[in-house]
Design a protein that fits this description.
about 30% helix, single chain, seven-stranded mixed beta sheet, 13 strands, globular, six-stranded mixed beta sheet, alpha/beta
């Protein structure tokens, strides 16, 4: 990171910290984005123009990119396991893309966090008989969403959109010769984040807990998890690749070196901003 970029990043984060303090002083704090409420309503994309891009990473693991968070797809004789569902209008396109890589039915879907670009298609998949998994905090946010930035409270998600299976400790699903590890994350991007590790494929789907194209919203515990992830595959991964791959919720695939650099950036900015805060 150059000095100019570093100074700019510090300025932005310091301003954000001051805004957070000001908001809290006015009694408008609370769950914030950690609770799932968006900072502002984004412009609605034209979903009719969205194309689903499929990328094969191993013999039975793919990513699907459309609009919203990257989807992971494990395929095989036991059926299909998906990570995240993107927006509801894209479900038919996502299902069609899955049919191009597997003749099995979609059996399970795990949500990495509550935001609509990762859970918007839940109802459609639920109606197809897909078993949805998530943290209990995520399910609770779908049942009782946090108020939006304008103060209005969105309606509860339909019953078909709600996860049927919840967990708040590490869980392993064995499917298609793969160990799928659902790893709960302490309050970070939201209060119900999950990372999903495909052990044999040597791939981690991080959701928006980590993004490779912008700053993530780091909260207590997040640096330690990024640091643990950076150390996770010292000496190479099981898949035969030199390093494991992290698949952020948004942005290009990265390896351990990039995750380590991100960790170092978090630490540097934290220490710099802490000093600025102490000086007022």
């Amino acid at each position: 990171m150059t000095k100019a970029i570093f100074r700019f990043a510090v300025t932005v984060l310091a301003a954000a910290a001051l805004m957070t303090v000001s908001t809290g002083a006015q009694g408008q704090g609370g769950a914030g984005r950690a609770g799932g409420a968006p900072a502002a309503a984004p412009a609605q994309p034209d979903f009719s123009q969205v194309q689903i891009k499929t990328t094969k990473l191993t013999n039975n693991f793919y990513t699907l990119e459309g609009q919203g968070g990257t989807i992971g797809a494990l395929v095989g004789p036991d059926g299909v396991f998906l990570v995240d569902s993107q927006f509801a209008p894209l479900t038919d396109k996502i299902v069609a893309a899955v049919k191009q890589i597997s003749d099995g039915r979609i059996r399970f879907l795990v949500n990495t966090h509550v935001h609509g670009d990762h859970t918007g298609g839940n109802e459609n998949f639920g109606k197809l008989g897909v078993v949805i998994l998530s943290r209990p905090q995520l399910r609770a946010r779908l049942v009782k969403p946090s108020p939006a930035a304008n103060g209005t409270t969105p309606p509860s998600a339909p019953a078909a959109a709600l996860p049927m299976v919840t967990y708040d400790a590490p869980v392993t699903v064995t499917m298609n010769g793969e160990e799928i590890r659902l790893i709960p994350v302490p309050a970070a991007h939201t209060d119900g984040d999950t990372m999903v590790r495909f052990q044999t494929a040597d791939v981690i789907m991080t959701g928006d807990f980590y993004r490779s194209i912008q700053y993530s919203e780091h909260r207590q515990g997040q640096r330690r998890i990024v640091e643990r992830d950076a150390r996770r595959t010292e000496g190479g991964g099981r898949s035969g690749r030199a390093q494991h791959e992290d698949h952020p919720g948004h942005g290009p695939i990265v390896d351990k070196t990039a995750v380590s650099a991100h960790r170092d950036m978090i630490i540097a900015l934290r220490d710099k901003v802490a000093g600025l805060v102490r000086r007022g």
